[in-house]
Amino acid sequence: MSGQSRNYYDAFDAVYRESWGPFLHHGWFDGGHGTRRPAVALQRYQDEIVARLRLVEGGQQALCDVGCGYGAFAAELVRRNLVAEAVAITDSRAQVDHARRILPRLEGFRMEESDWLDNQLPAHSYDRVIAIESLYHFEGADKATAIAEISRVLSQGGLAAVALWLRRDRSFLSSAVDRGMSVWGGRFGSLATGADYCQWFAEHDLDVAVFDDVTRFVMPTIPSLLFSVLSALWTEPAAFSRISRSPVSAIRAGVALAFTWLGYSSGHLRYAIVELRKR
Questions:
Q1: Is the pTM here over 0.90, yes or no?
Q2: H or E segment to which residue 235 belongs
Q3: In the sheet that 62-66 helps form, which strands lie side by side, from edge to edge?
């Protein structure tokens, strides 16, 4: 990913760990039993990705997780015997260091600190690829290059599940949400439209099987995340101490989340999960 995203995740590492745990992605709030609780919503989200990738227990697929955070999701897929092996890629040294402290040693799982645009993975070597909210962190032509790399490492007929933040259009409000998320988040990404992504997928031999707007299911993540932060600060003085070491990062993360909520609420920010098949 970009150097800006690496700096962002290194700087905001403590804030995210204290507020949301090892799984750095949205939750899935479908109204089912217990989904108001973040841990349940996070598990439901992962179940959605597993289903979309057609993963079953005893599967022999090899999986690559692009922009993996702490690698916890990919490691969980190996632990549950849903894939035979997985490589998790991040460019954040802070995330790699923390992952080494919290993740168990698992045969078939490895984590790499690497720039996705310059990764050294063999071509056509993975049956499944996931990119959960990570393509946002590439700007301009780098988005197309990142998608080209997904296509390169994916085997023929292989499946990818990509979770995307999308701007609704080119209007002033959509641009304001995009800039607010980027500037307050440390200039660590940019939004594109669904049409933009579909063009890039087509140019790189990735057929869109499903393009699913799931904003209504993930949108409650923002207030849930805020509640988790406030609860941690209220009940765990040590958490306050750790977050207060990076007060500027905490404030900027909060404002970036506010712009995210504004985008969702106004309809100018959408969240989609796209199922892709390599031609």
A1: no
A2: helix 221-235
A3: 109-113, 85-90, 62-66, 126-132, 154-167, 269-278, 206-213
